[in-house]
Amino acid sequence: MADAVPDSRLVGDRSLRVGVIGAGMAGILAVIKLREAGITDIVCFEKADRVGGTWRENTYPGIGCDVPSHVYSYSFAPNPDFTRMFSPGHEIQAYLERVAVDHGVVPHLRLGDEVVSAIYDRGVWHLETARGHRADFDVVIAASGVLHHPRMPEIDGVDEFEGAMFHSARWDQDVPIDGRRVGVIGTGSTAVQITGALVDRVEHFSLFQRTPQWIMPMDNKLFSDDQRATFRNEPHRLRELRDFLESAFAENFADAVVDAKSERLEQIEDTCRANLYQHVTDPELRRRLEPDYRAACKRLVVSADFYDAIQKPNAELVTAAISRIERRGIRTDTGRLHELDVIVLATGFEVDRFMRPTVITGLDGRTLEEAWADGPTAYLSVSIPEFPNLFMLNGPNGPVGNFSLIQVAELQMDYILQLVRRLQAGLSTEIHATEAAMREHEARRIEAAQATVWVTGCNSWYLDARGVPAAWPWPFRRFREVMAEPDLDAYHH
Ligand code: N01
């Protein structure tokens, strides 16, 4: 094990230059943690003109986080001001911007400049940006996000529509919505949030469902002024709430989904079924809304208002398959044309892209495209063989879905820093996972994935091209354990 991993404050003698790709939640975290480790020569590249990642890009009505706010926040930057148990997106965006200012991230930002290529050559990463800047780094941390390349549906006639049409992650705020006829394609977490937010604003709301979803009820309670004052004045109370939510979340959800036979998973299923039967009284509508696969097989959708919204008189659940998009709306295979003013494509994301389209070239001219020809992999989601001194936050096959990705990234960053400290201390010049370690990890991961709920008979974005869940298939505590300290035997170092 890595008993030789030094603490930089004690032995650091080499000054490192670190490039961070992306200034979303994970990139902000990387800069803060690097600075804490005494590394200040950092440039954080961000293609957009603001920090925030997902929370900057997604501005659709109803956007919020369905992970409790006090878990979906940095452990070192609690936010007593969150107004609800589950925060709306704009509060999270404001929080991330504030953290970036308060924790000294801003001077390291290079906004509006996308990294287009990163080439490794004898200990140095040469980065080039879309604006033609070139800069060299000893270490690169890729914090470029997971769900950020919109997946456009392959539907005939998409170019024919004469109204407004956009992907949920590219919401056009200039398009009027109120009093209009709006159609949403998809029934994932995004579409469900949009449904609750839009139905009372529009003349007619059509939800085009290809596959029904289980819906976990949510009690999105407001924190009162008094509660928030208590969180502010007695920080330990906020810490207690966070600890409670964190362990409840891990035990009740994260650990349940990786064991398809678990009792807790049955309870999740019972809760979702009861939610449907209690809230949807029309048996025909209920039949159309009831999935034929197990709850949490797809990423579980959490909502306080979806069933009420879809039963409003101006709302319609369309379950006939979409045949094509036409000038005036969407035609289904029953022959009916649903006339619409606005079509929202809540059709999800290309989840296997990660840092791409950035062209990344490691040892011996090997590109990431080549390394990932059979799908994205990385040792413990963090390090790719033959790509030395490049580390990923929220990389492939890690804990995704109904988790706090902030919590995940914090654990990964502490792990990465232990490797970076070796470089800083001059104990290593190149660190990257061995091919053998990655293969062994992948084999064990794929085997363990067979016990998860994700392979019990549904299609979802968790599944890779081979049908293997691209996710962490073990309890969350195991992730915590392996992230505690790198096993140097798994690395060239
Ligand atoms: O995307 P999705 P999302 N014709 O991939 C349908 C996170 N998130 O943006 O199920 C018709 O889940 C597709 O149908 P089917 C969260 O991790 C978090 O909603 O494939 N339909 C499906 O219904 C989430 O899981 C929050 O049959 C088509 C939908 O589009 C992830 O983002 C909030 C179609 C896509 O669902 C992605 O969620 C929101 C077609 N051609 C999102 N193509 C939080 O609160 C696709 N579909 C933290």
Can you characterise this structure?
There is one protein chain. By secondary structure, the chain is α/β, with parallel strands linked by helices. The protein folds into 2 domains: 285 residues, 3-Layer(bba) Sandwich (FAD/NAD(P)-binding domain), CATH 3.50.50.60; 161 residues, no CATH class. It is 31% helix and 17% strand. The chain is built from 14 helices and 21 strands. It has a 5-stranded parallel sheet with strand order 3-2-1-7-19, with helices on one face. Helix 6 packs across helix 7, helix 7 packs across helix 8 and helix 12 packs parallel to helix 14. The radius of gyration is 23 Å and the shape is globular. The chain starts with 7 loop residues before the first helix and ends with a strand. The N terminus is likely disordered. 3-acetylpyridine adenine dinucleotide binds next to helix 5.
